[in-house]
Amino acid sequence: MPFTGHVAPICAVAQALVTRGHDVRVYTGAAFRRRVESAGAALVPWQIAPDFDENDLSATFPRVVGKKGLGQLLINVQDVFIRTAPAQVEDLRTAWERTPWDAIAGDEVSLGGALFAEQTGGVRATVALLPLNLSGTHGPPSGMGIAPGRNPFTRTRDAALRAAVPLISRPLRRPLAQARAAVGLPPSARAFDKVAFSPRLVVASGVPQLDYERTDRPPSVHFVGELRAPTTVAAELPRWWGDLDGRRVVHVTQGTQNIDPSDLIRPALEALADRDVLVVVATGVSGRDELPFAVPGNARVAGFLPYAELLPRTDVVITNGGWGGVLAALSHGIPLVIAGGDLDKPEIAARVAWAGAGVNLKTGTPTAAKVAAGFDRIMADESFRDAAARVGADLRSRGGAPRAAELLESLV
Prior knowledge:
By secondary structure, the chain is α/β, with parallel strands linked by helices. It is built from 16 helices and 12 strands. Strands 9-8-7-10-11-12 form a 6-stranded parallel β-sheet, with helices on both faces. Strands 3-4-5-6 form a 4-stranded parallel β-sheet, with helices on both faces. Strands 1-2 form a two-stranded parallel ribbon.
């Protein structure tokens, strides 16, 4: 799917496959052409499928306006992932007829790839770029931001929630059925995750520590840590980069979606304005190097920042909980303060807190006082940094993109 947080790790896997001698094409939005081609792959752009701007979803999908929480999640899944799938299938068929491929791998919301593989009987894998959202027999359903129960009462709660999933996901049934019918597939009672995830191979970003150490994952799931391409070109650094020298650095980010800076960036800046730290803010939009409000003297702002250079110099990350950024921080052993409010962010925050590697603020719009309290907990309790180091060591040991490429090779 044409989101920066999806394209970047997919391109890392593509680059690893190219390095191993394979011909790779990446089907995604035209805005990512340079990123795809820099990985050595060829772009297959969305054409019949409605190529959209991730920073302005409502321009293409007007129903997402004003939606929050579960309402936003269900609308996003319906309109962005499911209803675009038949057109994705048409694009993929055109590409297939031009030059067939041996295997197709898609992220876990690229329903078009899943339907095309089902339609043609082709070999398919899933590269999971989000917290693993496979249904299972233990714990609560993924996505609710609830840690698995540890006593009879909470285990009963988990079982009740699992039983309620068909009712909760009922709004997805009709769009799924319509998408299948539109591409000539027979009706199916399978839920979204059973359609989207390959039953043969799931290459999952992350580590079991960030999956509640669940024991009900199928043998097709292989955790590979962080999917990141090696840095080969020196990044252009902001003019103020030298200000980081000798300072305790706190990085603040709201990712690339739901990026109203008043949600998290403003309260974080207010919380840390009088602290002896340098606050480094990423706005999440290329070229947007300023904020629409005054910033304190200990803050520096840029659109995007080179994590390969920034994270080794960062002490704490304050984030809305985007999975890619969380994995990047933890790979460097950095503890997190997470304000996850929408989509998969509450789930990510709950997983990091369960692993002991961060503080879950349990809201996407915290007050400055709440951010300050979370930051103070991190600074006062070394267990957060110790847990982040453990998770980071596991992430680094899993092989990353080269291991993902090795697993995908096994398909053919």
